[in-house]
Amino acid sequence: MTASMTAFSRQEAVYDWGTISWEIRSVNQRYLEPHFRLPEQFRELEFGFRDSLRKKLNRGKVECQLRFYAEDTAAKGLNINAENAQALANAVKELGTWFDGIKTPSPLQILQWPGILSDESADADEVKKAVIALFNKALDDMISVRQREGEQLNAIIEERLDSIDAIVADVKEKLPTIIAAQKQNLLDKLEAAKVELDPMRVEAEIVMLAQKADVAEEVDRLATHTKEVRRQLKEKGPIGRRLDFLMQELNREANTLSSKSIVVETTNSAVELKVLIEQMREQIQNIE
């Protein structure tokens, strides 16, 4: 599936201990070039993030930014478990009915009893797991965006290929007529000038003219290249570089067609071909 290198994704998750958000944006680049902006406490996770990018992406400049907003846990970090505290009070009261002289424990002693206090401060491992999970979600979403845009690029390129094939077919159809017309034009000029030339010389001139006007080879190669572009668009994996090379080959044939042109029809066709090829090349710059 054709994938674009241009995409953006933003994902956010809210927890009791805070809020995390990821922003991942990607633009075209010759190679894979990841950049990370992370809070210092998550810097150790960067290697894993880079590894995930390498497994799922092949090209593009990818900027990843993590934002972390921690909740203020100073006031609510330690909470009294009311149920356990009530059970402890009942136990102390009951012991008082059995034994004389039992002192009521101090508040500090009560707080030190197991199960009375619960710490709701965020667990570091839990936070890191959430950060990793949200990164993977943002990355998958960004890849989906790249694929959707790739489908649009595919349609644009296919449309240009259809136009190129139509021009190539038109030139191929008109080529015999063009060569015959140029041959007759040369004979008419010689006859009008009343020039007596050696028949062998005339034949040689006609052959040279036909060779110059014959662009059948270039037309055939143009058709071959468009077929290969269509085939590449259906390939899996990165295809951008191969498509870029094919654009160079298409442009080379269009330039040759222009240089060999001896009539306005083929000149105009060559110009139109170069316009279409350049339009495709601009879109291919964004294909992975």
TrEMBL record:
<keyword id="KW-0255">Endonuclease</keyword>
<protein>
    <submittedName>
        <fullName>Uncharacterized protein (TIGR00255 family)</fullName>
    </submittedName>
</protein>
<feature type="domain" description="Endoribonuclease YicC-like N-terminal">
    <location>
        <begin position="3"/>
        <end position="154"/>
    </location>
</feature>
<dbReference type="GO" id="GO:0016787">
    <property type="term" value="F:hydrolase activity"/>
</dbReference>
<keyword id="KW-0540">Nuclease</keyword>
<dbReference type="GO" id="GO:0004521">
    <property type="term" value="F:RNA endonuclease activity"/>
</dbReference>
<keyword id="KW-0378">Hydrolase</keyword>
<dbReference type="InterPro" id="IPR013551">
    <property type="entry name" value="YicC-like_C"/>
</dbReference>
<feature type="domain" description="Endoribonuclease YicC-like C-terminal">
    <location>
        <begin position="171"/>
        <end position="288"/>
    </location>
</feature>
<comment type="similarity">
    <text>Belongs to the YicC/YloC family.</text>
</comment>
<dbReference type="Pfam" id="PF08340">
    <property type="entry name" value="YicC-like_C"/>
</dbReference>
<dbReference type="Pfam" id="PF03755">
    <property type="entry name" value="YicC-like_N"/>
</dbReference>
<dbReference type="InterPro" id="IPR005229">
    <property type="entry name" value="YicC/YloC-like"/>
</dbReference>
<dbReference type="InterPro" id="IPR013527">
    <property type="entry name" value="YicC-like_N"/>
</dbReference>
